[in-house]
Structure formats: C-alpha cells, structure tokens
C-alpha cells in the first residue's frame, strides 16, 4: 500500500468530513499542494479550484503577501489570550474593518468562525433588547431559504423545512420566517407588503432580523434585488429590531461591491464577516456593530457581551487578515470580479432549469438532485474542482483566476451538468 493509499484508508475509517456519513462516507481526494488558483490532487494532477476553498481563498494559494504576513508574525508570537491583553495585529485589523465596512459600524468582536460570528450577533440583539427593557423579545425574524451556519442558534434562523437542518425541528428555538425574497423579475412590492405584515404581527417578541444580503448562499444560491435590503432596514427601524447582515459569503467583493449592503446603500446594526477575511489562510471572522448596539447591550443584566473564545483575536489570523484587507484596498479585485462575471456568462449556454450569475458567482440549477460523485469526476476530467450540492452546480472561484481558468471552470460545470 502506498503512503497515499494508507492516508486515504485511515481517513475513510476515522475522519469525518463536512456532511458525510461515518459508516458510508463519500470518496475523498488527497491534496498535495496548492498555488495561485490551482490545487494539486494525488492521482489527478493540478486542477483549477472553482470553489476557492468554500469561497474563502479569494487571492489564491501561496500568495506572497499573505505568506510573508504569517512568517513575520510567527517571529513575534503565534498566539496570546485576548482576555485582559491586546496586540498590534488585532488593533490594526479592527481599524481596517471599521474603515472598509459601511459607516457607523465602530465596534468589533473578533470571532473564531463564521457561525460563531452569527451566534455573537444574535447574542448582541438579545442583550440589546434586554438592556432596552424588552426581555420578552427572544425570537428572530428572517426569511426562508437562508443558511447561517451549523451551531444551534445559527441553525434556528436557517431554513426550517428545505434547509440542511430540518432534522433539528423541535430541538431548536422557533423563529419567525417570512417568504424568501423574489428574484429580480419577481413582485418586490407584494413580497414587501407580506414581510411588513408578518413583522408587525410578531414584533413584540422579536429581538432582531437576520438575513444574508443580496445572495443566499448554502441555502440555494438565490440572488435577490437590492431594494429588498431597504425593506429589511425599514422593518427593523419600524419595530425596534436589531438588523443583522450575515456577509460571511458575500463580503469582500464576491457580489460585485465590497459588501453586499453597499448595493442598496443600507447599513445594518450588526455585520458578520468571515471566510475571505483571512484570504482563506486561517479560521477567523468578525462581528461589527454600531455604537448604539454596543451601549444598549452594555446596559443589560450582565453589563458585558457574554462571549469570549479562547482563540479570539489570534495574532496569526489577524496578521494575515490585515494583509488580505491590504490587497483588497488596492481595488484590483473590482476588475477581477467584473472579468470573472463576464467569463461566467458562458454558463447561460448550458441547458438547465436556471442559470444565474452575480459578481464572481455562477450557478447552474438542474431539474434533479445532482449525482455528486459523477459530476465531480466529470469536472475533474476538465481540470476543475467543484463541489455540487442538491440540484446545484456552482462556482465561486478565486479572484486571481485567469481567463483560461474561467474557460476551464465553465467547461467543468457543463460536463458536470451533463453527467450529474
């Protein structure tokens, strides 16, 4: 047995992968290296990563600036507790986030991961309402089709019926779900009227409104009009709700603006970012809020925000996040995302139920559940790594993809659609 075979055999026997069975796991492939927009898979060779490591590696792999940031920080310290202590990388990354995000979000909580940042946002909303003398407001308003992470409160605001967490019905807090926002050709006014009515009906028990702006990600890759974000803002203002935008997937340029909130000129009360924050190098996220939310929750029972991860503000993660944000600050990503958007228009040639392209996101929806293994093999044969789910074959590639890479991605999606 070769070393590769031994590693894969042990992996199959002992390691869980995301959303896989331990008794009947789906095949995994051994990655031996990565550079730029490509990963090297044992037995396959070098392929374009059409997923950017689940949408996070926007600058590609082994980027010199990000590599150097990690090396430099290692020479100083890799970690120190954030309780009672601080350090330059944390201060600098917080300052940069405040500068880049919509105006008014001046308080920063450095979290471990995207789902943790949403958990923190929900705690902020609950504590804010307690501080405002409304402790009975313990539920959240959201829309169907959403996905906000795999921890418990995050699961509760993800789609309860068609989402990945339907099996937890009865074990999760029961939230208030409005209709999914319409597509660009839908009746926004009718949807808005229904959403306003639902909010009014339940307002006295709702603490906050949690949504993915402009694009719902793992819940179905569903884009919707920017004007819906103004509806969310109006509803939150009318009923005293804390408006939370989960930009884990959409933040840092993915939909064509640096943050999806900018598409409608809307500022939430709380903003969650992650994934691309460190350029895909390390796990880290952040929850930003307004000074008003910060003051409000500080008047709640505890007087403090009740969360504090062990690796909060990890210096290595902060240092590489700062380097990633520096790259974004050059503005080069704007042309890259436009170029990717143009290249992905080729997907419209595929015979499918629906094809949608937004920013650097391309989605092909089939009329049946994708045979993921067959589709994956078909894409690999075209030199592309994809990870289809449900009836969707999609790509959210690194911004550094070349035109050649984009052609390969489109060919891979086409092959996957025809096979899967």
Automatic annotation (TrEMBL):
Pfam families: Aminotran_3 (PF00202). Keywords: Aminotransferase, Biotin biosynthesis, Cytoplasm, Pyridoxal phosphate, S-adenosyl-L-methionine, Transferase. GO terms for biological process: biotin biosynthetic process. The record marks 19 as: Participates in the substrate recognition with KAPA and in a stacking interaction with the adenine ring of SAM. The keyword S-adenosyl-L-methionine applies. GO terms for cellular component: cytoplasm. The modification N6-(pyridoxal phosphate)lysine is found at residue 275. Belongs to the class-III pyridoxal-phosphate-dependent aminotransferase family. BioA subfamily. CDD domains: OAT_like (cd00610). Gene3D superfamilies: Aspartate Aminotransferase, domain 1 (3.90.1150.10), Type I PLP-dependent aspartate aminotransferase-like (Major domain) (3.40.640.10). One of its GO terms (molecular function) is pyridoxal phosphate binding. Substrate binds at residues 54, 147, 275, 308, 387. HAMAP family: BioA. Pyridoxal 5'-phosphate binds at residues 114-115, 246, 309-310. Its EC number is 2.6.1.62. It comes from Halosaccharopolyspora lacisalsi. Its cofactor is pyridoxal 5'-phosphate. Its main location: cytoplasm. Pathway: Cofactor biosynthesis; biotin biosynthesis; 7,8-diaminononanoate from 8-amino-7-oxononanoate (SAM route): step 1/1. Homodimer. PANTHER family: ADENOSYLMETHIONINE-8-AMINO-7-OXONONANOATE AMINOTRANSFERASE (PTHR42684:SF17). This is Adenosylmethionine-8-amino-7-oxononanoate aminotransferase. It catalyses: (8S)-8-amino-7-oxononanoate + S-adenosyl-L-methionine = S-adenosyl-4-methylsulfanyl-2-oxobutanoate + (7R,8S)-7,8-diammoniononanoate. PROSITE patterns: AA_TRANSFER_CLASS_3. Catalyzes the transfer of the alpha-amino group from S-adenosyl-L-methionine (SAM) to 7-keto-8-aminopelargonic acid (KAPA) to form 7,8-diaminopelargonic acid (DAPA). It is the only aminotransferase known to utilize SAM as an amino donor. It is found in: Cytoplasm.
């Amino acid at each position: 047995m070769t070393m590769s075979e031994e590693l894969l055999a042990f992996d199959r026997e002992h390691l869980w992968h995301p959303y896989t069975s331990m008794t009947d796991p789906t095949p995994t492939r051994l990655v031996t290296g990565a550079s730029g927009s490509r990963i090297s898979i044992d037995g396959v060779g070098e392929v374009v990563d059409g997923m950017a490591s689940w949408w996070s590696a926007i600058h590609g792999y082994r980027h010199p600036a990000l590599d150097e940031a990690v090396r430099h920080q290692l020479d100083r310290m890799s970690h120190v507790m954030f309780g009672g202590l601080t350090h330059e990388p944390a201060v600098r990354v917080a300052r940069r986030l405040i500068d880049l995000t919509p105006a008014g979000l001046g308080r920063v909580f450095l979290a471990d991961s995207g789902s943790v940042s949403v958990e923190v946002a929900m705690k902020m909303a609950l504590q804010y309402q307690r501080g405002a003398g409304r402790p009975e407001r313990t539920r959240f308003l959201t829309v169907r089709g959403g996905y906000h992470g795999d921890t418990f409160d995050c699961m509760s605001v993800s789609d309860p019926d068609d989402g990945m967490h339907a099996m937890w019905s009865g074990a999760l807090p029961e939230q208030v779900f409005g209709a999914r926002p319409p597509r660009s050709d839908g009746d926004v006014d009718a949807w808005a009227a229904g959403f306003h009515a639902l909010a009014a009906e339940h307002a006295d028990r709702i603490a906050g409104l949690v949504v993915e702006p402009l694009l719902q990600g793992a819940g179905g890759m569903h884009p919707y009009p920017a004007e819906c974000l103004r509806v969310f803002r109006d509803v939150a203002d009318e009923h005293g709700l804390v408006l939370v935008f989960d930009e884990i997937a959409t933040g840092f340029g993915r939909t064509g603006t640096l943050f999806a909130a900018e598409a409608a000129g809307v500022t939430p009360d709380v903003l969650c970012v992650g994934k691309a924050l460190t350029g895909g190098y390390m796990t880290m996220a952040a929850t930003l809020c307004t000074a008003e939310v910060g003051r409000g929750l500080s008047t709640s029972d505890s007087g403090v925000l009740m969360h504090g991860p062990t690796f909060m503000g990890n210096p290595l993660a902060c240092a590489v996040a700062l380097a990633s944000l520096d790259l974004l600050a050059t503005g080069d990503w704007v042309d890259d995302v436009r170029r990717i958007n143009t290249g992905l228009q080729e997907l419209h040639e595929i015979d499918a139920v629906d094809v949608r392209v937004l920013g650097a996101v391309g989605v092909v929806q089939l009329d049946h559940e994708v045979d993921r293994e067959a589709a994956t093999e078909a894409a690999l044969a075209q030199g592309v790594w994809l990870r289809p789910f449900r009836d969707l074959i999609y790509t959210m590639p690194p911004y550094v993809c070349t035109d050649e890479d984009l052609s390969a991605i489109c060919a891979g999606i086409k092959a996957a659609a025809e096979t899967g």
